[in-house]
Design brief:
Radius of gyration: 17 Å
Shape: globular
Structural class: alpha/beta
Order of helices and strands: EHEHEHEHEHEEEEHEHHEE
Strand order of the largest sheet: 2-1-3-4-5
Length: about 230
C-alpha cells in the first residue's frame, strides 16, 4: 500500500484529501508546515508528496527544492498545491522540480487521480512495456525507471523521465507541446508552459551545451524533436 505525504496548513484541505486517499487504498501521512514535511520524509518511506506552496516555513517551493537536491529523495513524485494560479507561479513550481501543480480550489477526485497517475509512473515496471531505450551514450530503462548517460546515472524526476522516454522512443518525430501534454502527462487541457519548463530541465541533464541543444531540439512553430546522437 503506497504512502503519500500531505503537507498543508489548512486542516480542512488536509482532511478532505486524506479521506480520498484512504478510500483509494493509499495511506496518508500529514504535516502542517515545511519543517514537519521534511522530517516526515526523512523518517518514513514516502512514495509521493503533496506540498502546499503557502504553508509555514519553509514553504512548499523550498521543501521541493531540498527534496530534489537530496539524492535520497530526488526522484520522489511531488505535486504542488497552491492558491496562486498565475502562469509565472506555475512555472516557478516546475522550476523547483515539481512533477505536477494543482491550483486551489481543486477537485479532490482530480487530485487523487493525479496522485495515482504519478504513483503508477514512478513504480518499477511502469513505462512502455518495460523496455530499454538507447540513444548514443544515453540508456533509458523504463522498467527500472533508471536513466544513464555514459554509464553515469542521471537524477530525473518522474515527469522528466516520462518525457525523455517518450521522445527517445520516437526519434526524429516532432511533437507540439499540446500533444506532449496529452501523450506524456495524460492531460487534455492545461498550461503547456509545463512542457517548456520540463524540456529546459531535461536539456540541462542530457545535453553537453543546454543553450545549444543537439539532441532535444526545438522545431520553431511546431514543437520538439529528439535527434539520435551521432
Amino acid at each position: 500500500m503506497p504512502t503519500v505525504l500531505v503537507a498543508d496548513d489548512d486542516p480542512t484541505v488536509s482532511q478532505v484529501l486524506c479521506d480520498y486517499l484512504r478510500r483509494a487504498g493509499i495511506t496518508p501521512v500529514t504535516a502542517v508546515d515545511g519543517s514537519a514535511a521534511l522530517a516526515v520524509v526523512r523518517s518514513a518511506q514516502i512514495d509521493a508528496a503533496v506540498l502546499d506552496v503557502m504553508m509555514g516555513p519553509p514553504d512548499g517551493l523550498e521543501v521541493c527544492r531540498r527534496l530534489r537536491a537530496d539524492p535520497l529523495t530526488s526522484l520522489l513524485p511531488i505535486i504542488l498545491l497552491t492558491a496562486l494560479g498565475d502562469e509565472m507561479d506555475r512555472i516557478a513550481g516546475f522550476e523547483t522540480g515539481a512533477d505536477d501543480y494543482v491550483t486551489k480550489p481543486f477537485s479532490p477526485r482530480e487530485l487523487l487521480l493525479r496522485v495515482q497517475a504519478l504513483l503508477r509512473r514512478a513504480a518499477p515496471d511502469a513505462g512502455s512495456g518495460g523496455s530499454t531505450l538507447t540513444s548514443g551514450d544515453l540508456v533509458v530503462d523504463t522498467a527500472a525507471r533508471v536513466v544513464t548517460r555514459g554509464g553515469e546515472r542521471l537524477q530525473l524526476t518522474t515527469r522528466e523521465l516520462d518525457l525523455l522516454a517518450f521522445l527517445v522512443e520516437h526519434p526524429g518525430q516532432v511533437f507540439s507541446r499540446e500533444v506532449l501534454m496529452h501523450r506524456v502527462w495524460g492531460w487534455s487541457f492545461g498550461d503547456d508552459s509545463t512542457v517548456t519548463v520540463h524540456v529546459r530541465r531535461l536539456r540541462e541533464k542530457v545535453e553537453d551545451n543546454p543553450s545549444s541543444p543537439v539532441r532535444l531540439v526545438t522545431v520553431w512553430g511546431a514543437g520538439y524533436r529528439w535527434d539520435e546522437a551521432t
